[in-house]
Model the fold of this input.
Amino acid sequence: MSTYTSTRGGGSASLNEALFRGLAPDGGLFVPDPLPSLGSGGLSPPPPGDFVESAAWSAERLLAGQVDGAFVRRITRSALSFPVPLVEVEAGVHVLELHHGPSHAFKDVGARFMANLMSELDDSEAASTPRTVLVATSGDTGGAVASAFHGLERYR
Done:
């Protein structure tokens, strides 16, 4: 099972602790320690061009040993329920358009995965009372995070 360590060298945390704390006690960001490998591990990678399946495949490996693979695939598919087309802009050059989510910001991809993960893993005593999500931003992060948590039980 991976732990998460602060980028400022502070202590470690579990996946749940890192998700629900946000920042490490020393003000750093939590990063996996060790950084998981995305090597196929003997499994075939998803078909090329299928972003949702590629994301689920990657998330399953990044969170291996921490949450069940079927759980990761389910929340990935739920979070990425909007089109993410791969567009050819010229011969041999492709762009993944990440702006087709609810808030039309690329941040919908990560924010919705995080919100779904938090909603499903919230097993604290406070799980029966609403959690308030606050975002400070000068751009489109706030809209993406608000949209990601909108409609999830126990979040406001």
Observations:
- The CA atoms of residues 25 and 114 lie 20 Å apart.
- The helical segments are 15-21, 51-62, 69-79, 107-121, 141-149.
- The longest helix spans residues 107-121.
- Strands lie at 3-6, 12-13, 30-33, 86-90, 93-96.
